[in-house]
Design goal:
Alpha-Beta Plaits, SH3 type barrels, 3 domains, Arc Repressor Mutant, subunit A, 301 residues, 11 strands, alpha+beta, 5-stranded antiparallel beta sheet
Length: 301
């Protein structure tokens, strides 16, 4: 059995249990069979153990309901796992359709600006990050059109608005930089290793406290601030409930709150909602938004 087939079995098992109806082994096996996967009960038990220990997903058995469920609270980074399971499942559907000669492209609309370039480097960079391996690569500067060769210590991969970025420490500059994977070429893992220091790891972890990609190292000691804005249209409440701006987001009545380090990307995002929202706090952000709106209006006078 190939690793690819095993991974497919894993996400099918997780998907079935996630239906939250406490499926029995027989129900899970039937679900797998419906997706052209035939295994016996003993193999299913081994697969579920592998999911528990390799993917840190808490698959538990409820004796009262005679079925399985996922203990989300004790499953590490379960939301991230679901994201990749969704990608894998959708890719599998598309590949099967192509294999069966189904002409599905006419039913899909993809933005001409979308770029999947660089995603092939994700697995290589993850390997480098986990092994603390120094990497070399060329990076294209869109503004100048120049390629620069970097030697970097990779710390974090971040997805933002459908694109992937590498956050890495550049020893030559003694600073962190963010690189778009679509602009990285000639990537190689070297035999050199770097020491993942606590201070630098903490700097990288601070990316969890920002919206977007603009995070300057000098902000590493700044605490996240409470950002609140009021929704002036009912449909916006549904928008933010379905598409949270940040993992810290909470909604109470018509007020959305975030715990984030304020950066220009957050300002731009809030401005993009126009009259549909009103920034309430902090006062510094409210003032900044007001000033930028006034400058915009002045251009149309």
């Amino acid at each position: 059995m190939t690793n690819k087939n095993m991974l497919r079995r894993n996400y099918l098992i997780i998907r079935r249990i996630m239906q939250n109806d406490f499926p029995s082994k027989a129900a899970i096996l039937q679900y797998l069979n419906n997706h052209d996967v035939e295994i016996d009960g003993r193999t299913l038990e081994r697969d579920m153990n592998a999911i528990r220990y390799n993917l840190n997903v808490g698959i538990e058995y409820d004796r009262d309901k005679n079925g399985y469920f996922i203990d989300v609270e004790n499953s590490n980074d379960f939301d991230k796992l679901l994201y990749f399971i969704g990608l894998a499942e959708n890719a599998d559907v598309i590949l099967n359709a192509l294999k069966n000669k189904h002409d599905l492209w006419q039913y899909m609309s993809v933005s001409p600006a979308v770029s999947f370039k660089g995603v092939e480097n994700i697995s290589v960079l993850l390997q480098a990050i986990r092994s603390c391996s120094v990497v070399n690569f060329n990076h294209l500067n869109y503004h100048t059109g120049a390629h620069t060769r970097y030697t970097a210590e990779p710390y974090l991969l971040k997805e933002f608005e459908g694109r992937w970025y590498l956050y890495a420490f550049i020893p030559e500059k003694q600073a962190f930089r963010t690189f778009g994977l679509d602009r990285i070429t000639d990537l190689e893992i070297t035999v050199s290793r770097f020491q993942r220091t606590e201070q630098r790891a903490s700097t990288a972890d601070r990316f969890n406290d920002v919206f977007g990609l603009v995070y300057m190292p000098e902000q590493q000691n700044l605490p996240p601030e409470t950002v609140c804005f009021r929704c002036n249209a009912d449909f916006m409440m549904g928008h933010f409930a379905a598409l949270p701006l940040h993992s810290s987001q909470t909604i109470e009545n018509n007020v959305v709150s975030l715990q984030v380090i304020i950066n220009p990307e957050l300002e731009n995002k809030l401005l993009s909602y126009g009259e549909h929202i009103e920034v309430l706090q902090p006062n510094s952000l409210r003032t900044t938004i007001q000033q930028r709106l006034n400058k915009t209006l002045h251009q149309y006078e």
